[in-house]
């Protein structure tokens, strides 16, 4: 889980509502998983604890699927096309800033 969240951390600025969906997954990181297992062993009846946690796992599965779909469909993440004209943005006397962009379907 931590590897998946870490790899998405860079792209989080391109994914709308990333924090909402990722928060569900952060709750179920490895440490939380071991806590659930510990509770199940200490109560003696793991069925009840697992049943209580079923809702969290369902939400996590849904959030995982949504984040996977959003990272694939993020419109800003396009490969650089050498055949298209690049656009370099902004320079002034007191600051220099740039963004390497290209137009794709009317969107920069």
UniProtKB/TrEMBL annotation:
InterPro entries: DNA/RNA_pol_sf (IPR043502), Rev_trsase/Diguanyl_cyclase (IPR043128), Viral_Replic_Matur_Polypro (IPR051320)
An example molecular function term from Gene Ontology annotations: RNA-directed DNA polymerase activity
Alphabetic keyword roster: Nucleotidyltransferase, RNA-directed DNA polymerase, Transferase
Protein name in UniProt: Reverse transcriptase-rnase h-integrase
């Amino acid at each position: 889980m931590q590897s998946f969240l870490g790899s998405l951390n860079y792209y989080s600025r391109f994914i709308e509502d990333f924090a909402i969906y990722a928060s569900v997954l952060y709750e179920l990181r490895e440490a939380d998983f071991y806590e659930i297992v510990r509770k199940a062993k200490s109560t003696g009846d793991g069925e009840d604890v697992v049943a209580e946690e079923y809702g969290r796992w369902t939400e996590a599965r849904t959030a995982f699927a949504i984040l996977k779909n959003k990272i694939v469909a993020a419109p800003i993440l396009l490969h650089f096309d050498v055949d298209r004209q690049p656009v370099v943005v902004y320079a002034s006397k007191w600051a220099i800033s740039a963004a390497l962009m290209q137009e794709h379907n009317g969107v920069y």
